[in-house]
Amino acid sequence: MMTQATIALTIAALGQAGSEAADAAAAAAVEVNSIWDFLLKGGPMMIPIGLCSLVALTIFVERVVSLRRSRIIPAKFFPGLQATLSNGDADCERALEHCRTDGSPIAKIVAVGIKRLSEPIELLEKHIQEAGEREVLGLRKYLRALSVIASIAPLMGLLGTIFGMINAFQTVAMSGEALGKTELLAKGIYQAMITTAGGLLVAIPVLIAYHWISAKIEGLVCDMDRMTVDFVEQYANGGYVAPRKEPSLHAVEPDAEVESEAAVVGAATA
Asked: What mean pLDDT value characterizes the chain?
């Protein structure tokens, strides 16, 4: 009896130890210790999701650096431009050289206006508007890529989840053991849901970055439009030329003499 009891206790202890080992193995299979471990447990679809996150981060950093106000609308540009056009001489060449030296988007727009200051105001505004549209396209560069990443990242996560669910049910269907099928299914679903979480973790910050950059561009465009309108109102139609002088007496007297001489000649002829 003692021998049988001892054997039963030994079997129970071994079974408990085996159960604890299985639980530890299952816990290790689902535990996430690092970002790299998170990517590995998510399956193959985590690779394109990770690449999208790197591309989005690169675009965000590049746009933040490129859209600094000091590069788009330098504070010293308009004071220097007004200095070149402040005298009575229409020194457009100096003004154009100032714009070329600056090289900012606002300088390129104003340069188009300087070249056509003598044209009618409607035509001048049309050329400036076209130049402004070209510069705005440059400011919005790569934003479409951010929009695409924010749209497809959740879809890739969902696709990875579908693939993971298929693999999980396939594993359960192919398992010959009736016991443990629930654990196998739960493990597969756990790994499949990681891709959905990964897609959302990429899409949400990218969407926020997209709208933040768009708002920043809209603010810069409004400022450039206001400054360009002020420039056109001040210098268009020859506004930079010296004020028109009133006719002097010396300019009127010769005409009076000519009229009096014509009257005398007419009287003599009569």
From this structure: 75
More confident residue, 170 or 267: 170
Report domain extents, the chain: 27-238
Half-sphere exposure of 81 (CA within 13 A, CB side): 29
Please give the angle made by the CA atoms of 237, 238 and 239, to the nearest 5 degrees. Answer: 95
Summarize the confidence of residues 209-227 as an average pLDDT.
Answer: 93
Rounded Cα distance, 80 and 262, in Å: 55
Sort 54 into a burial class: Cβ within 10 Å, 0-12 / 13-18 / 19+: exposed
- Band of residue 264 on the pLDDT scale cut at 50, 70, 90: very low
Q: Give CA–CA dist 141/67, Å, rounded.
A: 11
Closest CA to 128 of 226, 216, 242: 226
Burial of 223 (0-12, 13-18, 19+ CB in 10 A): middle
Q: What mean pLDDT comes out for the span 241-245? A: 37
